[in-house]
Design a protein that fits this description.
Strand content: 5-15%
Distance between the termini: 42 Å
Order of helices and strands: EEEHEEHEEEHEHHEHEHEHEHH
Number of strands: 13
Largest sheet: 9 strands, parallel
Structural class: alpha/beta
Radius of gyration: 20 Å
Low-confidence stretches: 1-11
Helix content: 25-40%
Shape: globular
Bound molecules: flavin mononucleotide
Length: about 375
């Protein structure tokens, strides 16, 4: 495993985040990753041409980008105008976006998700209830992605023999991502969505082989990992986890053990990377320092380790320099600073992000209109 930035010391100060890193077969030129960021500009669940500019603005040669969460099936949605990858039309619509990122030398992974019970019947085919590992409903008024009125319909608990069908949806979505030209997929196993719902003991109340023990609760996630690895190759598979978070009422009584169990299991499949959200990101958008640490997971994992959640330039540099992670994913700062790697290189000031436009639908405002650093005239 590659690790640690900056072999040797140049006279000039090395910026650890700006050092190269070999992630499996991918040669990265730096360690600053575009975190998955839902943007709600994919009208009718179809990626739009304006995403070409959005993603290519954030592309650097040898930089890793992860897409916004992308639905695996027609039951996967819980937010308006989020993209999918289950239809031919969606696959075709992703192609020019992927091509644009590749044309600038970027490495592009598609984050695939299913929201499970974080949904309502309005998003579901034929107005059916959302599906989950449970029939326990979410508290209705949770503020979710800036939508105050989010109302969650009580979910329908998947029967044991329906679960493999959802695993298959993930597998087909991964195949579609390959068809669209992506370099790989990231399974969204974080933040209280379907995969996380199965993993967390505060939600999962099943009595079959997908519930109860930690091993059983992780079975769904690992079946997805296995199916996708067999389909597209483990060297193209990443997963995002947030064992310490309790977004969407998805806490666990023993997050440390859960995280380590997942890491040890993932090692058996030899997947490319594990992307873990910092324990300090317990609630959406708020950074609260807390005593847990990702280091045991990082040490136990054989592949590339990506950390995310509340990093700034200094934090990220320290984490890389101290070998606490291989790569750092930046969300809000990358959203507001399309040239974030350049700004970090120069230690230039950052644009502030505007929370009010995170989830609005405009193809430009709060999306592609954040300014780049001015290039000094020669
Ligand atoms: C606007 C917005 C959209 C997000 N969408 C996703 C998403 O689609 N998938 C995901 O795994 N995380 C999502 N997140 C979480 C981010 O990837 C990231 O973990 C979080 O913002 C913390 O990192 P930061 O402090 O660098 O912003 C989102 C966060 C924001 C602010």
């Amino acid at each position: 495993m590659e690790n640690k930035a900056g072999q040797g010391h140049d006279e000039e100060e090395q910026v650890p985040l700006l050092t190269p890193y070999k992630m499996g077969n991918f040669q990265l030129s730096h360690r600053i990753v575009l975190a998955p960021l839902t943007r709600q500009r994919s009208y009718g669940n179809v990626p739009q041409p304006h995403a070409i500019m959005y993603y290519s603005q954030r592309t650097t040669k040898g930089g890793l980008l992860i897409t916004e969460a992308t639905g695996v099936s027609d039951t996967a949605q819980g937010y308006p105008e989020t993209p999918g990858i289950w239809t031919k039309e969606q696959v075709e619509a992703w192609k020019p976006i992927v091509d644009a990122v590749h044309a600038k030398g970027g490495i592009f992974f598609c984050q695939i998700w299913h929201v499970g019970r974080v949904s309502n019947q309005g998003f579901q085919p034929n107005g059916q209830p959302p599906i989950s590992c449970t029939d326990k409903p979410l508290t209705p008024q949770i503020q979710s992605f800036g939508i105050d009125a989010a109302q969650f319909s009580p979910p329908r608990c998947l029967s044991t023999d329906e679960v493999p069908q959802v695993v298959n949806d993930f597998k087909v979505a991964a195949r579609h991502a390959m068809e669209a030209g992506f370099d790989g997929v990231e399974i969204h196993g974080a933040h209280g969505y379907l995969v996380d719902q199965f993993m967390k003991d505060q939600i999962n109340d099943r009595t079959d082989q997908y519930g109860g023990s930690m091993e059983n609760r992780c079975r769904f996630a690992l079946e997805i990992v296995e199916a996708i690895s067999n389909e597209i190759g483990a060297d193209r598979v990443g997963i995002r986890l947030s064992p310490f978070a309790n977004y969407m009422e998805s806490g666990d009584s023993n997050p440390k053990a859960l995280g380590l169990y997942m890491i040890e299991s993932l090692n058996k499949y030899g997947i490319l990377y594990c992307h873990v959200v910092e324990p300090r990101m317990k609630t959406v958008g708020e950074k609260t320092e807390c005593p847990h640490s990702l280091v045991p997971m990082r040490k136990a994992f054989n592949g590339t380790f990506i950390s995310a959640g509340g990093y700034d330039r200094e934090d990220g540099n320290n984490a890389v320099a101290e070998n606490r992670t291989d790569l750092v994913a930046y969300g809000r700062w990358f959203l507001a600073n399309p040239d974030l790697p350049k700004r970090f290189k120069l230690d230039a000031p950052l644009n502030k992000y505007n929370r009010d436009t995170f989830y609005t639908l405009d193809p430009v405002v709060g999306y592609t209109d954040y300014p780049f650093l001015e290039t000094p005239k020669a």
